[in-house]
C-alpha cells in the first residue's frame, strides 16, 4: 500500500472540516462520515496528530457536541461528566450532578470503573462535597464482583485504584469491610494472577467483539493513575498485548472470528462491535460505531496517556501479503463437568487482502456467546454489511451452562434469555459453541464436522448465508457458490438441507426477532458437516472458472459411523478430517501439543513464557512480563 501524502491530507482535512462546520455549525462525527482511507500513515507525527484529533472528536461529542448535548446537569451521566472534567466545562454542574448520582449509586464493575474515572479526573476539578460523595458511595454500597473474566478485571482495577486514592483508611470506611491496605493487596494479587494466566496460557475471553473495552479502559486507568511503578508498567504492557492481538485479528479494522464473546449483532455484521471503535481510534482505518460504542467514551478522557507502538499500528494497516497466525487461548473456567479447569483453545487465522478465515477446533468454549469459525470478506464500507459465512450446531443445554456458572440450575435455560442473551434458546440462533462440533482449517479451507447424539435439543446445523452474498448458486455437484465482495466462496453441505429466513435479535434485550435479510441453510441430520473454500476473485478468469476449479477438486466423504472428509484443497493440500480424530495434512497429523501461545509473522510467544514478540518487517517490540520491560528495535 502507498502511504498518504501528509501535506495533502492536512489540506483535504482542513477543507472538509471547514465545509462541514460552515454547513452544519458542528463537525460531522466520524460514524456518519464517509469511510476513512485504509492506507497507512507513515509519518509518526502525523499519525499521532490524527489519533489525538480522533480523541478530541470523542471528547467534544461526549462533553456536549453530540447526542450528549444538554445544558441540564440532571441529564448528565458519568461519561459526559468525565469528558466535561477534561474540557473544564461547567464544573459546578458536574459536581452537582455527581452528588445527586452518589445518593443512589450502582453496584458492580460497570459502575465501579466509571466512578473511578470521575474520581481521578475530578481530583482538582470536582468540589470537595462531590469528591466526598464518591468516597461515601464506596463505603455504603456493596459492590458485586461479577462472574466473568472481564468483570473481575474491571472490579479489581477499580478497587486497586480507589485503595491507592484513599490509602491508610480503616476497614469500616469501605464496603468490603477491609482496610485500604487489605483491598490493595487483594486487588494487586488478582491482577498479577490474571496477567500471568494471560501471558502464559492465554486469555479466556479472547478476541471479544465488545468486551475488549472492558479490558482496555480499566487497563488504561491502571497505566495512567497507579502509584506503584510496577503496576503502572503492567497496565501499559497489557494494553500493548491486547491491541497487538486486535491488530493481528482484524481485516481493515474489522474484527473477525473466532471469538470467545460475541452478540447477535456483531456475529453477522462484523463491523458492529466495540472492537471497531478501538480500531478507528488507534488505527484510523475504519468508521467507528454509532455513539463511539458507549463504553468507549471512558477511554477518550485518558487516551492521551497512551501511544500506540508503531509496530502494532503497521500490523493493523500495512499487511505483508497472505499470512497465517496460529495462537492459543483458554476456555472459560469450568466449575463442573470437566476434568480440566480451563482447557486450551487452538486458534487459526489466515489473512488475505480480500478476506480472512479464522477458526478454533470447536467443542465447548463460552457456553452462550462464542463464535467458532467464519470466513469474513472485505467491504469498502462495512457499515450495515453482513460480510460473513459460517455454520454451527445451535446447542443449548442446562448442563453446559452449569459447567461455567455456579448458581442454581433451576433458572436454566430460560433464565439466560432474560439476561441479555435472547437467542440462546432459539433453534435458529447463529452464535454459540457445541460439544458436538469439530473444526479443521488449512489456510482458506474449513471442514466443520458434527456428530450430534439422538435426543439432543436442536438436532440440526445452521449455515449463515448473508444478505450481502451475490449470485448464490446451488450447483448439481452439491457445492453452493457465491460472490462475496472481491472474494469467491464455495460451501459444501454434507447432508440434505432446506432454507429458512434468518431472524435476528436486534439487541441483547430484544423481545423478539426481526428480519434483516439473509438465510439459514438448515440441515436436520445428526451426522453432518460443512466444507468451505474461499479464494480471491482475481485468481480466476471469472466466477465460472472458480466453480469449475472447485468441482474438479478430489473430494470424498462419509457420515457413518462418524463424519469423515478427505479432499484436496484449492491450495493443493491433501487433508483428512474425521470426527473425534486428529486431522492430517499431506499425510501428517497435526500436533496441537506443539502449538505456541502465538506463532506467526506478527506475534510470537512461548506457552508459559510471559513474553510476546511483536513484529512487522524489520520493526520489533518485545513485551516481557518477567522483567516488566518493553524493548523496541529495528532488526
Detail the topology: elements first, then pairings:
Blueprint: H1 6-24, H2 44-65, H3 78-87, H4 91-101, H5 109-121, H6 128-140, H7 149-165, H8 180-200, H9 212-225, H10 229-248, E1 250-251, E2 254-255, H11 264-268, H12 274-283, H13 310-317, E3 323-330, E4 344-351, E5 355-359, E6 373-377, E7 388-392, H14 398-404, H15 414-417, E8 437-442, E9 445-451, E10 461-465, E11 470-474, E12 480-484, E13 487-493, E14 498-501, E15 519-523, E16 527-536, H16 543-551, E17 555-558, E18 564-568, E19 574-578, E20 584-585, E21 588-589, E22 598-599, E23 603-604, E24 611-616, E25 619-624, E26 629-634
Antiparallel strand pairs: 1-2, 3-4, 3-22, 4-5, 5-6, 6-7, 7-10, 8-9, 9-16, 10-15, 11-12, 12-13, 13-16, 14-15, 17-18, 18-19, 19-20, 20-21, 23-24, 24-25, 25-26
Helix pairs in contact: 2-3, 3-4, 3-5, 4-6, 5-7, 7-8, 7-9, 9-10, 10-13
Keyword list:
635 residues, alpha+beta, 3 domains, 20% strand
What would your notes on this structure say?
With 635 residues, the protein is an alpha+beta fold. It folds into three domains: 1-67 and 201-318, no CATH class; 70-187, no CATH class; 323-581. It has 16 helices and 26 strands. The strands form five sheets. Strands 14-15-10-7-6-5-4-3-22 form a nine-stranded antiparallel β-sheet, with no helix packed on it. Strands 8-9-16-13-12-11 form a six-stranded antiparallel β-sheet, covered by helices on one side. A five-stranded antiparallel β-sheet has the order 17-18-19-20-21, with no helix packed on it. β23 and β24 (611-616) form a beta hairpin. α2 (44-65) crosses α3 (78-87) and α9 (212-225) runs antiparallel to α10. The longest helix is centred in the first third of the chain and has 22 residues, at 44-65. It is globular, with a radius of gyration of 25 Å.
Amino acid at each position: 500500500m502507498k502511504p498518504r501524502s501528509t501535506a495533502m491530507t492536512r489540506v483535504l482535512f482542513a477543507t472538509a472540516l471547514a465545509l462541514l462546520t460552515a454547513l452544519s455549525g458542528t463537525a460531522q462525527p466520524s460514524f456518519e462520515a464517509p469511510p476513512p482511507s485504509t492506507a497507512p500513515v507513515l509519518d509518526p507525527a502525523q499519525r499521532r496528530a490524527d489519533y489525538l484529533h480522533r480523541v478530541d472528536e470523542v471528547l467534544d461529542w461526549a462533553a456536549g457536541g453530540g447526542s450528549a448535548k444538554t445544558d441540564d446537569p440532571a441529564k448528565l451521566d458519568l461519561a459526559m461528566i468525565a469528558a466535561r472534567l477534561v474540557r473544564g466545562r461547567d464544573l459546578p454542574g458536574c459536581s452537582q450532578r455527581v452528588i445527586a448520582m452518589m445518593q443512589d449509586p450502582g453496584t458492580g464493575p460497570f459502575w465501579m470503573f466509571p466512578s473511578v474515572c470521575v474520581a481521578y479526573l475530578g481530583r482538582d476539578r470536582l468540589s470537595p462535597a462531590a469528591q466526598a460523595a464518591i468516597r461515601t458511595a464506596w463505603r455504603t454500597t456493596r459492590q458485586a464482583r461479577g462472574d466473568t473474566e472481564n468483570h473481575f478485571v474491571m472490579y479489581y482495577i477499580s478497587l486497586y485504584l480507589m485503595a491507592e486514592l484513599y490509602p491508610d483508611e480503616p476497614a469500616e470506611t469501605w464496603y468490603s469491610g477491609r482496610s485500604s491496605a487489605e483491598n490493595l493487596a487483594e486487588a494487586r494479587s488478582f491482577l498479577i494472577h490474571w496477567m500471568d494466566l494471560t501471558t502464559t496460557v492465554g486469555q479466556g475471553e479472547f478476541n471479544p467483539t465488545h468486551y475488549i473495552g472492558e479490558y482496555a479502559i480499566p487497563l488504561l486507568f491502571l497505566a495512567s493513575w497507579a502509584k506503584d511503578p510496577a503496576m503502572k508498567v503492567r497496565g501499559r504492557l497489557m494494553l500493548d498485548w491486547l491491541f497487538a492481538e486486535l491488530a493481528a485479528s482484524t481485516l481493515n479494522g474489522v474484527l473477525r472470528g473466532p471469538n470467545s464473546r460475541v452478540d447477535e449483532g456483531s456475529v453477522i455484521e462484523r463491523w458492529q462491535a466495540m472492537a471497531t471503535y478501538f480500531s478507528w481510534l488507534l488505527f484510523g482505518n475504519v468508521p467507528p460505531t454509532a455513539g463511539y460504542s458507549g463504553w468507549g467514551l471512558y477511554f477518550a478522557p485518558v487516551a492521551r496517556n497512551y501511544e500506540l507502538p508503531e509496530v502494532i499500528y503497521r500490523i493493523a494497516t500495512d499487511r505483508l501479503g497472505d499470512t497465517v497466525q496460529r495462537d492459543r487461548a483458554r476456555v472459560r473456567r469450568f466449575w463442573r463437568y470437566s476434568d480440566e479447569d480451563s482447557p486450551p483453545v487452538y486458534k487459526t487465522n489466515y489473512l488475505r487482502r480480500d478476506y480472512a478465515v479464522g477458526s478454533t477446533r470447536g467443542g465447548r468454549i463460552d457456553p452462550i456467546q462464542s463464535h467458532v469459525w467464519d470466513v469474513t470478506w472485505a467491504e469498502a464500507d462495512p457499515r450495515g454489511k453482513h460480510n460473513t459465512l459460517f455454520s454451527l450446531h445451535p446447542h443449548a443445554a442446562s448442563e453446559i451452562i452449569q459447567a461455567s456458572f455456579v448458581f442454581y440450575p433451576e433458572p436454566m435455560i430460560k433464565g439466560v434469555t432474560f439476561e441479555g442473551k435472547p437467542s440462546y434458546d432459539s433453534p435458529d440462533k447463529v452464535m454459540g459453541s457445541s460439544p458436538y462440533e469439530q473444526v479443521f482449517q488449512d489456510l482458506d479451507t474449513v471442514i466443520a464436522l458434527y456428530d450430534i447424539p439422538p435426543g439432543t435439543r436442536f438436532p440440526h446445523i445452521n449455515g449463515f448465508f448473508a444478505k450481502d452474498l451475490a449470485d448464490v448458486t446451488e450447483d448439481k455437484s452439491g457445492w453452493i457458490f457465491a460472490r462475496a465482495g472481491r472474494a469467491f466462496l464455495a460451501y459444501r453441505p454434507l447432508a440434505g438441507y432446506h432454507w429458512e429466513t434468518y431472524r435476528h435479535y436486534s439487541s441483547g434485550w430484544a423481545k423478539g426477532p426481526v428480519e434483516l435479510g439473509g438465510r439459514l441453510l438448515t440441515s436436520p441430520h445428526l451426522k453432518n458437516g460443512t466444507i468451505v473454500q474461499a479464494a480471491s476473485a482475481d485468481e480466476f478468469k471469472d466466477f465460472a472458472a472458480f466453480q469449475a476449479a472447485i468441482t474438479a477438486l478430489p473430494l470424498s466423504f462419509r457420515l457413518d459411523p462418524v463424519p469423515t472428509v478427505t479432499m484436496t484443497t484449492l491450495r493443493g493440500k491433501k487433508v483428512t478430517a474425521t470426527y473425534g480424530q486428529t486431522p492430517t495434512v499431506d499425510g501428517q497429523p497435526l500436533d496441537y501439543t506443539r502449538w505456541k501461545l502465538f506463532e506467526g509473522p506478527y506475534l510470537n510467544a512461548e506457552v508459559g513464557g510471559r513474553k510476546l514478540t511483536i513484529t512487522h518487517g524489520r520493526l520489533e517490540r518485545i513485551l516481557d512480563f518477567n522483567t516488566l520491560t518493553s524493548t523496541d528495535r529495528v532488526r
